[in-house]
Amino acid sequence: xxxxxxxxxxxxxxxxxxxxxxxxxxxxxxxxxxxxxxxxxxxxxxxxxxxxxxxxxxxxxxxxxxxxxxxxxxxxxxxxxxxxxxxxxxxxxxxxxxxxxxxxxxxxxxxxxxxxxxxxxxxxxxxxxxxxxxxxxxxxxxxxxxxxxxxxxxxxxxxxxxxxxxxxxxxxxxxxxxxxxxxxxxxxxxxxxxxxx
Amino acid sequence: xxxxxxxxxxxxxxxxxxxxxxxxxxxxxxxxxxxxxxxxxxxxxxxxxxxxxxxxxxxxxxxxxxxxxxxxxxxxxxxxxxxxxxxxxxxxxxxxxxxxxxxxxxxxxxxxxxxxxxxxxxxxxxxxxxxxxxxxxxxxxxxxxxxxxxxxxxxxxxx
Lengths: 197, 159
Description:
- The complex is a heterodimer of chains A (about 200) and B (about 160).
- Chain A is built from eight helices and no strands.
- Chain A has about 200 residues and is mainly alpha-helical.
- In chain A, about 40% of the residues are buried.
- Chain B is mainly α and about 160 residues long.
- In chain B, helix 4 runs antiparallel to helix 5 (about 120-160).
């Protein structure tokens, strides 16, 4: 391990410990900062997990309330974002179980759950419109694959989590994560190819 | 080259940077020889780039609302914790006082019973009543208050 990587790791560890201390104290300033810091990443994860913007926003708020309540359970032993995603995931599953006893995969058959929205763009130039359409196609393809695979693909390629971190968040063995990643990406590629054909 | 070899190579391609040195060397070697896996690798790389280009933005309203809810909830949790601490301290104080004054009260009741010329059973029953009277009063008040709140709540719902 080179020196830069070593110091980065030390820095991340002390950051995680500082967050753990702050969460134990229920420090409002720390929570404000964390909400701002992870706002886009958490919403994106929830959006692709739940498949619906309104629900994702509700779950976003509930996740932070849960972080406040259970902050003492975070020991700073691993990255905060892994713990945050695990909380968000459990809340989503609880919500979907209460709502109706189906698997997460059932979401994509529901008409009211529209594909995830990409960021707003100003459709002034052709390039922006084309980018927007491409983003919509990818979002639609992503929402179209089974939730387990979608979640793994999002966590790996959008959120940049390592395989063992994804395993921690999803509660699945690393081998399963690898296979979901492979199959998920294949499904996504074939869906996009089908859409373009 | 078997189909399994290609599958293995493609699985490794999807893992991206999570490969060991040996796996990387093997994959590089395989990609030099296999055109279809090379195409797959390019397709996967494009897919990953496209995925990373997707942006989902949380608007400022959502962030503000969340921060406000979290602060409000934190204040409520803090109040509850403080109240529980006060209740705990009060219970501790009552317990200590009761333990210290119990022998004195017992002697006082015995002396009063003796002065009044009543039987032991009577002053002991009096002592017992005196001892549990505060708890009884508090229970009655709480039950009455609960009934009042319930009937008041139902009344206001009926309006």
